[in-house]
Design brief:
The structure is a single chain. By secondary structure, this protein is α/β, with parallel strands linked by helices. 32% of the residues lie in helices and 13% in strands. The longest helix has 17 residues, at 103-119. It is elongated and about 95 Å long. Residues 204-220 have low confidence and may be disordered.
Length: 223
């Protein structure tokens, strides 16, 4: 069972929380991570670069000089690539750079990225960040108390109604990115040096083991 440090929303240290075994099993598949990152970066390309070929540039409808008798090399058109303002050879043209990746491979990549950060002790669990209004100072103080103020930080929220306030609080802090846990990809997780996850996003209560759950069930049955 993998554990992660647990903090309150104000940055007070609490008892370490056991991460869900379904998501944090220690598996880090580097091949899948590489494929996910390559796919993500390829899908960010716009593919709008365009150059003109010799058939698209203006001018050059006639031979610049007669074929023979001038002492110069024969030329057929000023639109040829070796002429100034001529066409471009093998230049870029609009194209789609998007790559596909299976859903299960994408999920495994995200799982591997989270496990990598957890193994490095770079994953922190915090109580739900229920901000009534955007407050950059509050989020900056939390990050400072976690000891990751000088690092690239990814804050993952549970997607609650007040998550937008957390996003507005973090968008002015350099090297801090805030998004929903469900929207995070392997690339964002690997981009960050530290991952801060809301406890409710993990879907598991802290400090409860299977033995404790069994004891509570037996006590309830005896009562």
């Amino acid at each position: 069972m993998i554990e992660a440090p647990h903090y309150s929303a104000a940055g007070a240290k609490k008892k370490a929380v056991r991460l869900p075994a379904t998501l944090f099993d220690g598996t880090v598949n580097e091949h899948v991570l590489h494929r996910a990152v390559v796919t993500f970066l390829a899908n960010q390309r716009q593919g709008t670069s365009d150059t003109k070929t010799r058939s698209e540039v203006s001018g050059g409808n006639q031979k610049p000089w007669r074929q023979k008798g001038t002492g110069r090399a024969r030329q057929g058109s000023t639109r040829a690539p070796h002429w100034r303002h001529g066409g471009i050879v093998f230049g870029p043209h609009p194209r789609d750079y998007r790559l596909g990746i299976p859903k299960k491979v994408r999920q495994l990549a995200k799982k591997s990225a989270l496990n990598a950060r957890a193994r490095e002790q770079a994953l922190f669990v915090v109580d739900p960040l229920e901000y009534e209004k955007p407050k950059t100072k509050t989020l900056a103080e939390l990050i400072a108390k976690l000891g990751v103020a000088e690092k690239k930080v990814l804050v993952l929220t549970a997607g609650a109604a007040r998550a937008h306030n957390v996003y507005l609080s973090g968008r002015n802090i350099p090297d801090v990115q805030v998004m929903r846990f469900a929207d995070a990809t392997a690339y964002e997780i690997l981009w960050s040096d530290a991952v801060v996850v809301e406890l409710s996003a993990l879907g598991e209560a802290p400090g409860k083991t299977e033995g404790e759950e069994a004891e509570k069930t037996e006590e309830a049955g005896d009562a």
